[in-house]
From TrEMBL:
Highest taxon in the source lineage: Bacteria
SUPFAM superfamilies: FAD/NAD(P)-binding domain
Region (Disordered): 454-475
Span of the signal peptide: none
Domain called FAD-binding: residue spans: 7-336
A Pfam family it matches: FAD_binding_3
InterPro entries hit by this protein: FAD-bd, FAD/NAD-bd_sf
Name listed for the protein in its UniProt record: 2-polyprenyl-6-methoxyphenol hydroxylase-like FAD-dependent oxidoreductase
Length: 475
């Protein structure tokens, strides 16, 4: 007979969001089950249920700090597995509005791991927790409730590929981490809680990813080359060293202007970017796989915090709450911060109050990056949305900041701290930084993007290795 005094949490989805959630739940519940359609244990490559696993997935600096807080030592374990690293501001060649920004170290650790590599390490550390169990290759059929439907009491599941009957996993808490296709909105309507309000913005994003082994080094000690799309040129790319001695390219276009998947067409597309460094590197590189496409038509935010009623015993995290424009790489970091928000609501042995959780999640975790990306998305004239006077002021200030970042290293470092979610956007309004922005815009000299090989002669890094610079770049 089962010990009914034991507490159990069930996480729906073995995604990174689900793994982070399971980690914090393991500190509060006797047993944590992670249910997923895929095989998870021992899997090193992309998962079938995670199509974005074949593309670049960035973990921002704030996400790295949160991951390290939950799994002490994991960052060094990832680096020891051949993952390159560097500083987000000092070792990445960023281009905004077609101009390179000044490179200056800002203490922002990059984890340049492929999505499968990152998942592998987080999953291994999660699986090492004695009270966590993976329920693999199971479909999630629905939830069970108390008689009055005020509490979620468990999950109905069925093993894939068998004729076995469905079974119920009883739970004190269910956490939905099933991503954009989450069925929580449907379940809530069926249970009489009404429809959750949703915000969508059509951005028409499409991107293509390919991996290479380089014969020439375009990095000169840098970690990545990232020309960012702008209103004048709505095309961009991330071209980064990654694990396995490989280089990973994801190039993208907005508003239906998508990169082609034929090799010749893709190379022609790369010629149109705001830097020729990427095309010049890949045209002679060893091609390791075929170009793979992904489409992301709309951003999505489900406003659970606005619901009048919500059942006890159920929380939602990750893309199941908010799908950001993936170009800004905020998804995994927000998932990590969502887990820490859950941790903050696990106290006194009581099940978290969903209303309080969603209020904190919205205000402290989702609002800042959502507003920041909305400001950038609506700078593209073809993106539909309400361009208020306040938004236009924010866009004007962002444009000034990006111009200043191309001329002043301190501004560039401060700006990248906001992009890495380590600092809030309003930090750029501090008098010291604001003065530097104004001074750089009015009197600063333009950055000519001097290669690191000229600026820092000590660098001996080759493409794909894990070396980082021995000297910081001059501001």
């Amino acid at each position: 007979m089962a010990d009914v005094t034991k507490t159990r949490a069930v996480v729906l989805g073995g995604s990174i969001a689900g793994l982070f959630a399971a980690r914090v739940l393991a500190d509060a519940y006797d047993e944590v089950l992670i249910v997923d359609r895929d095989a998870l244990i021992g899997v090193d490559g992309p998962r079938r249920s995670c199509p974005q696993g074949k593309h670049i997935n960035g973990l921002l600096a704030r996400g790295q700090l949160a991951m390290e807080e939950m799994f002490p030592g994991i960052t060094e374990e990832i680096f020891a597995d051949g993952v390159p690293t560097g500083d987000l501001a000092g070792d990445v060649r960023w281009y905004f509005k077609g101009k390179p920004i000044k490179q200056q170290d800002a203490g922002l650790t990059c984890v340049s791991a492929s999505r499968p590599m990152l998942e592998k390490h987080i999953r291994r550390r999660t699986n090492a927790l004695e009270n966590v169990t993976f329920v693999e290759k199971h479909d999630i059929l629905g939830v069970t409730t108390s008689e009055d439907k005020r509490r979620i009491t468990g999950v109905k599941v069925q093993r894939i590929g068998t004729k076995s009957a469905e079974k119920v996993l009883s739970a004190d808490l269910v956490v939905d981490a099933t991503g954009r296709g989450s069925r929580t909105p449907i379940w809530l309507e069926e249970l009489g809680y009404g429809r959750v309000e949703e915000e969508r913005k059509k951005i028409g994003l499409g991107y293509v990813t390919q991996h290479y082994r380089l014969t020439e080094d375009p990095y000169h000690g840098d970690l990545s080359i990232n020309p960012v799309a702008s209103a004048a040129l709505p095309r961009g790319a991330i071209f980064t060293k990654t694990d396995g001695g490989r280089v990973e390219l994801t190039t993208y276009g907005l508003l239906g202007d998508h990169p082609p998947t034929d090799q010749a067409g893709l190379f022609e597309w790369l010629k149109t970017l705001s830097t020729q460094d990427i095309y010049n590197a890949v045209k002679t590189a060893e091609i390791l796989d075929e170009p793979v496409a992904f489409r992301f038509p709309t951003t999505l935010r489900r406003r659970y915090e606005k619901m009048d009623r919500f059942p006890d015993g159920l929380l939602v995290v990750g893309d199941a709450v908010t799908c950001f424009n993936p170009v800004y790489a905020q998804g995994m970091t927000v998932s990590a911060l969502s887990a820490l928000t859950i941790r903050g609501h696990l106290h006194s042995g009581a099940t978290p109050d969903p209303k309080l959780y969603f209020a904190d999640l919205a205000r402290d975790v989702i609002d800042p990056p959502w507003e920041m990306t909305n400001t950038v998305d609506l700078s593209f004239p073809g993106v539909e949305g309400n361009r208020t006077f306040a938004l236009k002021v924010q866009q004007f200030f962002l444009s000034l900041t990006q111009t200043a970042a191309s001329r002043d290293g301190d501004v560039a470092a401060a700006y990248m701290k906001t992009a890495g979610m380590v600092a809030k956007p309003e930090s750029l309004m501090q008098p010291k930084i604001l003065f530097k922005i104004i001074k750089a815009v009015l009197f600063g000299r333009k950055n000519q993007a001097v290669p690191r090989s000229a600026a820092s002669p000590k660098v001996t890094a080759l493409p794909g290795n894990n070396a980082v610079t021995e000297e910081k770049k001059a501001a």
